[in-house]
Design a protein that fits this description.
The chain is mainly α and about 170 residues long. The chain has 2 domains: about 40 residues, no CATH class; about 80 residues, no CATH class. About 45% of the residues lie in helices and about 10% in strands. It has a two-stranded antiparallel sheet. Strand 3 and strand 4 form a beta hairpin. Helix 2 crosses helix 6 and helix 5 runs antiparallel to helix 6. The longest helix has 24 residues. About 15% of the residues are buried.
Length: about 170
């Protein structure tokens, strides 16, 4: 039996033997490293509970409250807080950094469909969209709202976004 999955980088379909499940392997098309998922035994599939929309809404409100408290504390300590994401001025009709931030926050919150809507918006700006992503990757642009995302996860989201913009 084989494990079929798509390359995280070039999105080509890859077939791997069951013995490769849970390990990393290089894509035969682009050569990039990929995690090979473990084979799924239909008898062992766990039933998942549906998302509690009210709980998700409350969690999002709590995150917003905590981020606002961080901004207030930073201002009280004499630091210069970054403007709230929604208060930033738009540049060229849209703030490219704002779109990158929204993409990452939606990814970490599991809003994958909404996160995907930012890719075409950024693609409209061509190289400027990619440069906005590189600003975060290089540390030239820092957004406190992204501090809730572990650094390695954030860099993974940014790399994935950059790949999506390059294709």
């Amino acid at each position: 039996m084989t494990i079929t999955f798509h390359c995280e980088h070039c999105d080509k379909e890859i077939n791997a033997p069951d013995s490769a499940g849970g390990k990393r392997g290089n894509c035969p098309f682009c050569g990039q490293s990929n995690y090979v998922p473990t084979p799924v035994n239909e008898d062992e599939v766990l039933p998942l509970a549906p998302i509690d929309e009210e709980e998700e809404r409350q969690r999002e409100q709590e995150v917003k409250k905590l981020l606002e408290k961080d901004r207030v504390l930073l201002a009280a300590s004499g630091g210069e807080p970054a403007p709230a994401t929604e208060d930033r001025p738009a540049s060229g009709g849209e703030d490219l950094h704002h779109l990158v931030v929204n993409y990452c926050l939606d990814m970490v919150n599991g809003n994958l469909n909404r996160a995907g809507t930012y890719i075409p918006q950024l693609k409209k700006f061509g190289g400027a969209g990619i440069e906005a992503v590189e600003d975060f990757l290089s540390g030239r642009f820092i957004e406190p709202a992204l501090d809730v995302i572990p650094t390695r996860v954030l860099h993974g989201f940014l790399a994935q976004l950059k790949t999506g913009l390059s294709s």
